[in-house]
Design goal:
One of its GO terms (molecular function) is RNA binding. This protein is of the alpha/beta class. It is built from 38 helices and 16 strands. Among the domains are: 340-537, P-loop containing nucleotide triphosphate hydrolases (Rossmann fold, 3-Layer(aba) Sandwich); 548-558 and 571-749, Rossmann fold (3-Layer(aba) Sandwich), CATH 3.40.50. The chain has a 9-stranded mixed beta sheet, with helices on both faces. Strands 5-6-4-7-8-3-9 form a 7-stranded parallel beta sheet, sandwiched between helices. Bound molecules: adenosine-5'-triphosphate.
């Protein structure tokens, strides 16, 4: 990297062709020094502000030596970002080496450090113990006990506990002698016999393996010896489930490949045959793939259905920049000129060539257009929106400070990261930032919002909290609203919050939506009241990152009764052992993020990992049951390489950009293809390579095929693990079960103690500061607690049910309007017209009968319920006049509103039941009873 000296002159305020005139330098100076003082609110007065003052005093501009330390400190010290002096001359020896405090585009990034400034330090709070701390405490107690026993002369205790290695050796001996019975993993030789008819090639392959395997077993019990089948299946069966067998023979290639210790089976060219996945056919067992060929892809289906609406909704746009194939740089982006401050920041972060999404979106964002943009994971969407937004901010009216940009993210961690990236890009500007996310100190945020930061990065809930309860903060001046991970933000769980935020922001704002799986639903987008947005689409919907290898490992169902005994899903028994085997063998190097569907499972696995050891103890968990501090600490440890495994829920599935994640493991297939794409997108980012492995149960096959659909065939692999290895691990895990229970019990006790302490603290606070506490205005929220919980549950349901919804929707589509060229088979396919009509008529009759019966059942249930109700005591009512109907009129005459009563609409009164005739209306106009009653409610008639 070439070193250079950069001098920023007063013309650095704006580009040559700027959308709005640059403000005079004097105003910049003023704002700048004012902003420098802002961090004082956080108690970080001193250095920066003093330095700025000192510089201001000198007659000539002083040279400011910017070294790597300064850069590093700026954002950490001040969440408001590095307030740049308008004229900065750099040291001759200074070299932009890509490490000079950069946050992105380098190995060691520190975007999460920005969150640390917001962590509320509670000196009296009892720290929550991590699993590792509990285990370490237990170990210390155990060793102390052992020492005591030793000193008592009792040396038997140490022998009782079997050393891990000894246990392993013993089990391997058992295994070789055939004594070990691993339930659920069928003996390979048995299975080979059962599935002979499947494919002769497979038989040959297994022979070869066995020959290879025998000496290897002798040499080292745990050593892996090539492709084998795990999860109870035989090899033939395993190969079939991804459709490798036929493709392999078609291509005439060797499909087996040893990678690392475990084996992967490559999926060569023929995967296209499996690509068209019919999600609607729930009954299909997945063996007959021929009918999938006739299907239209989900993307086609979606685009056809929405084409007309989309045409009207979006401004037409062609990806001109990316199509031109000219080598681009940030300095030569067509139709826009970036400010030197931004170019400098981009350069210091090692970002010189814009990615396609950046090349397309930056000019559009600078023009103030609304954008709906999508591109694969890790393709640089964050920089794509920040650059445009920051460039606009450089031309703001500095005399009138207010929050002009709001960036919203669905998770706190993502918000912290996005905030960090924004600050890194704005380090040579005077743009100020505030991070407003749940779980971090409200007070710090309130103090910063008082300073009217230019940009607020937030999660929706906390933003609404501030809109409602922080007096100095309002969204009236918001000019740009960015929704990162827009499709998630538009899901049910965020719906109400988003509506509240949209209504608080001015209509004239610019709205930018970014996601790898951005919604195509115009219905959802219209809720944002965008102004003819431009749709920028770089990658095909559903496409995974280019350098990603996707592996699948089959998890066989349990033998009858096992899952019932375990009270878990089928195959659960094997998953833990499979995961541990994978992590101690093929995934033992590099950093791996492991996704779980539930917090409980992620936590249990963390305990198992810590107890198991062998490198697995270098792991951390990340899910909603942890405190925000713990969550950020886990991320930091993982990012810094202190933890090699991150056991996370979907909290970490979107947006997180951690350098050096080589592997992603899905402990189970997620519930929708979108979530799958985001999860596996945590690796293979920014043109890097990565691999994702998914443990696939019987019910996940359709989703696997969907994942394979958009992937290059050579990137799909089928992984296997030798059954004996899993058997050993499984036994070891079983042996750890009592310890797991003990750790969980200790955690429970800890929790109770913590809760007690908290209550005590609360009571003490109340006693000491009662007046102050009671005088504080109560914080308000736009939903009641029950509404909030209901929205949360709805969101969860929607988040988890995309797959089922799609299935239903497709089934419906098929009934209403067959979009595929070749219609799908229906129950009437292949019948003569007459026969078909007869069957259809019979079906309709049946449906009619069923619905009639249903109605009857419904009405009799209602009648029975009514009869069972105790009789009501009614006040005597005037008799109804004959001719008065029951239905609607009865309802009207029932419950009266206060308004009706005030209006003098008495029960049974004519006014209540009859619309006044013309004569009566005339009377009312001219004066009469009705006017009299209105007169009581309405304003006093003016005297003439
Ligand atoms: N122009 C660029 N040149 C090289 N690397 C870049 C460029 N822009 C961004 N990157 C790098 O790409 C990585 C991914 O960027 P980013 O997190 O913005 O991806 P994303 O598209 O938002 O991904 P996701 O969909 O997962 O949120 C970052 O580490 C960033 O440093």
């Amino acid at each position: 990297m070439a070193g250079f000296i950069m001098t920023l002159d007063s013309d650095d305020d704006g580009p040559a062709r700027s959308p709005s005139p640059s403000p005079p330098p004097s105003s910049t100076r003023k704002t700048s020094s004012k902003n420098d003082a802002a961090p004082a609110a956080k108690g970080k007065k001193g250095k920066a502000a003093k330095g700025a003052k000192a510089k201001g005093k000198g007659k000539k501009l002083l040279d400011t030596v910017v070294d790597a330390d300064d850069d590093e400190d700026t954002p950490v010290d001040s969440p408001r970002g590095g307030a740049a002096d308008e004229e900065v001359r750099m040291d001759k020896g200074f070299v932009f080496d890509g490490l000079g405090g950069g946050f992105i585009g380098r190995e060691r990034n520190s975007v999460w450090d920005s969150g640390e400034a917001y962590i509320q330090k509670r000196p009296n709070a009892m720290p929550r113990l991590s699993v590792d701390e509990i285990i370490a405490r237990r170990a210390a107690i155990k060793s102390a006990e052992a020492l005591l026993e030793e000193s008592d002369g009792d040396e038997d205790g140490s022998d009782e506990e079997l050393d891990d290695e000894e246990l392993e050796k013993e089990m391997m001996r058992d295994l070789e002698n055939g004594d070990l019975d691993f339930e659920g993993l069928d003996d390979e030789s048995d299975d080979a016999g059962e599935d002979d008819e499947d494919d002769e090639d497979d038989e040959d392959e297994s022979d070869v393996e066995e020959k290879e395997e025998a000496p290897a077993k002798k040499a080292a019990a745990r050593k892996d010896v090539g492709p084998q089948i795990v999860g109870g299946g035989d090899e033939a069966d395993e190969e079939d489930w991804l459709g490798l067998k036929e493709k392999k023979s078609d291509a005439g290639s060797e499909a087996e490949e040893k990678v690392g210790e475990d084996a992967e089976l490559d999926g060569p060219s023929g995967f296209a045959a499996l690509a068209d996945v019919d999600m609607s056919d729930a009954e299909d067992d997945g063996d007959d793939d021929s009918e999938y060929d006739e299907d239209v892809s989900p993307a086609d289906r979606q685009s056809r259905a929405d084409a007309a609406a989309a045409k009207a909704f979006f401004t037409s746009h062609e990806n001109s920049t990316t199509l031109s194939r000219k080598p681009l740089s940030f300095t030569t982006l067509p139709n826009c000129t970036l400010s030197r401050q931004l170019l400098l920041a981009l350069g210091s972060l090692n970002l010189s060539t814009p990615t396609p999404i950046q090349a397309e979106c930056i000019p559009l964002a600078m023009l103030g257009k609304d954008i709906v943009a999508s591109s694969a994971t890790g393709s640089g969407k964050t920089v794509a929106f920040w650059v445009g937004v920051l460039e606009r901010l450089l031309h703001r009216d500095r005399k009138n400070p207010m929050t002009r940009v709001v960036v919203m993210c669905p998770t706190r961690e993502l918000a912290v990261q996005v905030h960090g990236v924004g600050m890194a890009l704005a380090r040579y500007t005077d743009v100020s930032f505030c991070l407003c996310v749940g779980g971090l100190s409200l007070k710090v945020q309130e103090a910063e919002l008082k300073q009217r930061p230019d940009v607020v990065v937030s999660t929706p809930g906390r933003l609404i909290d501030h809109v409602r309860n922080t007096p100095c903060f309002s969204m009236d001046g918001v000019e740009v609203l960015v929704l990162d991970e827009a499709d998630r933000m538009l899901e049910e769980g965020f719906r109400d919050e988003l509506e509240e935020i949209i209504s608080a922001a001015p209509r004239s704002r610019q709205t930018l939506l970014f996601s790898a799986t951005v919604t195509e639903s115009i219905q959802q987008l219209t809720r944002l009241s965008m102004n003819k947005p431009v749709r920028v689409k770089i990658d095909e919907m559903g496409a995974a990152a280019k350098g990603l290898d996707q592996e699948f490992l089959r998890v066989r169902g349990d033998k009858a009764g096992e899952s019932i005994e375990l009270n878990s899903r089928s195959g659960e028994r094997h998953r833990e052992a499979l995961l541990v085997s994978l992590c101690t063998r093929s995934f033992s190097s590099g950093r791996t993020i492991i996704f779980f569907r539930s917090k409980a499972q992620a936590h249990r696995m963390k305990i198992l990992f810590s107890l198991f050891g062998k490198g697995l103890e270098k792991s951390d968990e990340l899910h909603g049951d942890l405190t925000q501090e713990q969550r950020l600490r886990s991320l930091k440890r993982f990012r810094d390489g202190e933890a090699r495994f991150l056991l996370a829920t979907d909290l970490a599935s979107r947006g997180l950009d951690i350098k050096g994640i080589e592997n992603v493991i899905n402990y189970e297939m997620p519930k929708s293809i979108e979530i799958y794409l985001h999860r596996v997108g945590r690796t293979a980012r920014a043109g890097q390579k990565g691999r994702a492995l998914t443990l696939v149960g019987e019910s996940d096959r359709k989703l696997v095929k969907l994942a394979m659909k958009h992937a290059p065939p050579e990137s799909i692999k089928q992984r296997t693990i030798p059954g004996d290895v899993v058997a050993v691990v499984s036994k070891q895990l079983k042996a750890l079960e009592p310890d797991v229970r003990d750790v969980m019990q200790e955690e429970k006790e800890e929790k109770e103690i913590r809760r007690g302490n908290m209550e005590l603290q609360k009571a003490q606070n109340m006693l000491e500061h009662e007046d102050e506490i009671k005088s504080r205005p109560a914080r308000t929220w736009f939903q009641s607690t029950s509404e909030k919980n209901a929205a949360k549950n709805l969101g969860k349901a929607e988040h988890n049910s995309k797959f089922q919804e799609k299935t239903k929707k497709r089934a419906l589509d098929e009934d209403e309007e067959p979009l595929s060229k070749a219609p799908k088979r229906t129950p009437f396919s292949g019948l003569s017209r007459r026969e078909k009509r007869r069957k259809m008529a019979m079906r309709e009759d049946e449906e009619d009968r069923a619905s009639g019966a249903q109605r009857e059942i419904g009405s009799s249930i209602r009648a029975a319920k009514k009869a069972a109700l105790p009789g009501k005591i009614h006040a005597a009512r005037p008799e109804r006049t004959p001719g008065q109907g029951e239905g609607k009129k009865k309802k009207k005459g029932g419950k009266k509103s206060v308004f009706d009563r005030e209006m003098g609409v008495a029960d049974g009164g004519a006014a209540s039941d009859k619309r006044p005739g013309k004569r009566e209306r005339d009377m009312m106009k001219g004066g009469g009873g009705a006017k009299h009653s209105l007169g009581r409610m309405g304003p006093k008639p003016k005297k003439r």
